[in-house]
Amino acid sequence: MNSSDVLNDLRRRFPNEPEYLQAVEEVLTTIEDAYNEHPEFERYNLIERLCIPDRIFSFRVSWVDDKGRVQNNMGYRVQHNNAIGPYKGGIRFHSSVNLSILKFLAFEQTFKNSLTTLAMGGGKGGSDFNPKGKSDMEIMRFCQAFVAELWRHIGPDTDVPAGDIGVGGREVGYMFGMYKKMAREHTGTFTGKGIEFGGSLVRPEATGYGNVYFLLNMLATRGIDIKGKKVAISGSGNVATYTADKLLQLGAKVVTMSDSNGTIYVPDGLTREQLDYIFKLKNIYRGRIREFAEEYGCEYFEGGRPWGVKCDIAMPSATQNELDGDDARTLLANGCIAVSEGANMPSTPEAVHEFINAKILYAPGKAANAGGVSVSGLEMAQNAQMLSWSAEEVDKKLKDIMANIHAQCLRYGKQEDGYVNYVKGANVAGFMKVANAMMAQGIL
Ligand code: NDP
Questions:
Q1: I want to staple 425 with a disulfide (CB 3.0 to 4.6 A). Which of 10, 28, 190, 412 is the partner?
Q2: Coil vs helix vs strand at 364
């Protein structure tokens, strides 16, 4: 394979999909050497079959708002690859959702799921529905209309969706309820469900906690203690808040959080009471992070991102391409020693280049945020057995999985000078398993 030939061909065929092309480019350029050691892969044109999704469903979602007006959104499910298990990946509700974003997420998910060591393929779905400002009833009607179409394409052994941006426990509950009604079955078709109807303990916490566990593994390679370290987090949703929660438990200082309107800055670190306030603000009152600054009188950067403040560690946990080359240079100049991604592809290629060039600890999302889908996999296992495991049991498995992902990154990403390129490590490790499974199953 010549990665630039493959990329040029994909650019010609999918010219309007920049995020998808960005994600593919990052993977192809790092796996090229490993791929080319296996001439049989090339004979079966494996790379193209791995880059192009198995299938994509797109559909109109019509629903009625509280004023009685009929609203129409687009719904999608990208089933990317099921070589190692059923398609698995979240559902995103955000006005920016389009096929480029979902294809990049489904592609990334395939490698991430492979790294978890669990039997899960890769998929992703969502809608350009904007949940902001919608009433609970509107959210419910939208979720039901979305699943009225989607349910035909998913199932416990086929495709298992979960949450993502704009989709948390409430939305998963409504979607699962509708699925159950349409399919007339109560199975583990969604993950992130409520505890009362098949959800797993520690699933809400899993992505954030998992990212911190991964970070601890990285820091250990350099003998660095997390205690007292200043951490800049972006976002204030599921991933960001549970990242902050675990960091506080470990004695680190969380100095920023944000939303799409701005960033709060607390130089001495959030207190537990302040984090609880953010949790309530976001999950119960569905307010803005600005309200935290008003309540506690801290600094607030309207429209600003967290990356300009002094910190030791950055954990971008909001959305793709939220940290660019300039942000990376500012972080490095301010003494940042580690970046561990909670979001998917939050750093632009230029930013990634800066981090790797500076040889700081840098973990890409597909490794560092894999804890969420890992506990989703554990939820599927519990559902299949009709059992539920204790929080301690799930948390222990999560820690082991993150340590295992870290070990795979070391195995494939350690350079001659000892520096660990986690991007390469994660991509090659994730790729080899999927590639071998695809080879064994023939051309499909
Ligand atoms: P949530 O919807 O719970 O939170 C998203 C947060 O990011 C909110 O604070 C939101 O602010 C902010 N945000 C969203 N879009 C933008 C944007 N365009 N610009 C600036 N801020 C933005 O989502 P999650 O916490 O679940 O997901 C966050 C990231 O983590 C995503 O990249 C997701 O793919 C990834 N991820 C999530 C997993 C999970 O288990 N939930 C698993 C693995 C990865 P606002 O409220 O203003 O929109």
A1: 412
A2: coil
Closest-CA residue to 314 (of 333, 289, 331): 331
State the pTM of this model: 0.98
The predicted model gives 116-133 an average pLDDT of: 97
How many angstroms separate the CA atoms of 189 and 162, rounded?
A: 9
Same-domain pairing of 131 and 220: no
Give domain status of residue 220, yes or no.
yes
Q: Write the pLDDT tens digit of every residue in 83-95.
A: 999 999 999 999 9
Query: Shortest CA distance to 191 belongs to which of 339, 33, 380?
Result: 380
Distance 12 CA to ligand 1 centre (A): 30
Give a yes or no: residue 361 inside a domain.
yes
Question: CATH no. for residue 442?
Answer: 1.10.285.10
As a residue count, the chain comes to: 444
Among 110, 207, 319, which is best to mutate for testing ligand 1, by the most ligand atoms less than 8 A from CB? 319
Measure 406 CA to ligand 1 centroid, in angstroms: 23
pLDDT band with cut points at 50, 70 and 90 for residue 1: confident
CATH number reported for the structural domain that contains residue 174 in this entry: 3.40.50.10860
- Pocket of ligand 1 contains residue 113 by CB under 6 Å: no
Q: Measured from the CB, is residue 318 less than 6 Å from ligand 1?
A: yes
The per-residue pLDDT for 83 is 98
Q: Alpha helix (H) ranges present in 315-421?
A: 325-333, 349-357, 365-368, 371-385, 391-413
- Residue 213 belongs to a domain: yes
Range of the domain at 320: 206-368
Contact by Cβ (8 Å): 430, 112: yes
Regarding whether 129 and 141 lie in a shared domain, the answer is yes
Q: Are residues 38 and 65 in the same domain?
A: no
